[in-house]
Amino acid sequence: MSKILLQKENNYTISEEVDIILSAELYSARIFDIPIESSKELKLVIPDFFEEFFNIEGYSFYYVKLSKHKYLCFAYKQDDILDIIKKSNIDLKYVKNIYFLQNELKCENDNVYEYNKTKYICSNDILVKIPDNISVSTKANKIDLNNITLSKHNIFFNKSSKYIENKTAYIISFIFIIFAIFNFYKMSILNTQIDNYDKKLDGLKQKYSIPSSMIQTKAIIGEYEEVKNNYEQYRTALEYILNYNQSINTKLEDIEYKNNKLLITFENKNKEKLEKYIKKRYKIISSHVYNNNLSIEVKI
Amino acid sequence: MKKLNIDPLFLLLSSIVLFVLSIYILNTTYSKKTKSFDEFKNNSVIIKKYNNLKNTWAKKDIQAKKINQLIKRLNIKNANITQNTNKIKVKIKSDINKIDRFTNKLLNEKLNITKLKITKDELSFEVGLL
Question: Looking at the whole model, is its pTM more than 0.90?
Answer without folding.
Answer: no
